[in-house]
């Protein structure tokens, strides 16, 4: 059986979803799930089914990939080198510690 990059990413995530949820930063998790969706052409339900989690979990994981966060310190595709100053870099690191519900509330009021 041949594995493509999407299959390999899916396998690495499904191998231990609990560790993926606990040990991977929220930004990295969002980036990985979005990549999986893009590579496989899946929607949130298909990702949830494949990983054996509820669709709400996938939606929470993907919060950081929403268009509203593009180009901000919340954006998982923004590299540390692209963050303009030390203060914003520190804030970016702290964002990863926030509960996804808090991040959603910030998005909703801005």
Task: Explain this structure.
With 110 residues, the chain is an all-alpha fold. It has one domain (5-109). It contains 7 helices and no strands. Helix 4 (44-51) packs across helix 5. The longest helix has 15 residues, at 26-40. The chain starts with a helix and ends with a helix.
Provide a compact summary of the structure:
Helices cover about 60% and strands about 0% of the residues. By secondary structure, the chain is mainly α.
Write the layout of secondary structure elements.
Layout: H1 5-14, H2 17-23, H3 26-40, H4 44-51, H5 55-61, H6 86-95, H7 100-109
Task: Determine the mean pLDDT.
Answer: 84
In the residues, how many domains can be counted?
1
Fraction in helix: 55-70%
Q: What is the H/E order?
A: HHHHHHH
- Overall body shape: globular
Class from helix and strand fractions: mainly alpha
Tally of individual helices: 7
Task: List its salient traits.
110 residues, mainly alpha
């Amino acid at each position: 059986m041949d594995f493509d990059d999407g299959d390999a990413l899916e396998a690495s995530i499904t191998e231990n979803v609990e560790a993926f949820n606990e040990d991977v930063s929220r930004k990295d998790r969002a980036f990985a799930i979005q990549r999986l969706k893009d590579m496989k052409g899946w929607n949130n339900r298909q990702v949830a089914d494949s990983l054996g989690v509820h669709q709400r979990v996938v939606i929470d994981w993907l919060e950081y990939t929403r268009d509203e966060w593009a180009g901000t310190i919340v954006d998982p595709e923004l590299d540390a080198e692209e963050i303009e100053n030390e203060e914003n870099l520190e804030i970016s690191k702290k964002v990863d510690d926030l509960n996804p519900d808090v991040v959603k509330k910030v998005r909703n009021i801005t």
